[in-house]
Amino acid sequence: MKTRELLTLCILSALGGAENQVKAHVQGNLNVGNNKEMMITAITHCLPYIGFPRTLNALSCVNEIIPE
Predict the structure, then answer these.
(1) Distance separating alpha carbons of residues 49 and 29, to the nearest angstrom
(2) Are 46 and 57 in contact (CB under 8 A)?
(3) What whole-number distance in Å separates Cα of residue 43 and Cα of residue 10?
(4) How far is CA 30 from CA 1, 22, 35, 51, 53, in A?
(5) pLDDT tens digits, residue range 40-65?
(6) Nearest-CA neighbor of 36 among 13, 4, 60, 54?
(7) pTM to 2 decimals?
(8) In 10 A of CB 52, how many CB atoms?
(9) Among 1, 2, 6, 49, which is 20 to 30 Å from 28 by CA?
């Protein structure tokens, strides 16, 4: 479940324009036990494939749901 939810987060981030779904899956990742650091690392690793703007949008969604 942890891996599947993390992959879903990355796939939605790659699509672009799905920020509401990204936010929902950030919460889903928390629910299955993935932490903020793991999500940020996974999204950052996708940067060369999904581009800088979509990476920033996804990171913004993570920071909005899990502020520190």
Answers:
(1) 21
(2) no
(3) 6
(4) 11, 12, 6, 25, 24
(5) 999 999 999 999 999 999 999 999 99
(6) 60
(7) 0.93
(8) 9
(9) 49
The CA distance from 42 to 3, in Å, is 11
| Amino acid in the structure at residue 34 | N
Q: Are 18 and 41 in contact (CB under 8 A)?
A: no
Say what the pLDDT of residue 68 is.
83
Report CA dihedral (48, 40, 35, 11) to the nearest 10 degrees.
-40
What angle (nearest 5°) sits at the alpha carbon of residue 25, between those of residues 22 and 27?
115
Start-to-end C-alpha separation, the chain: 25
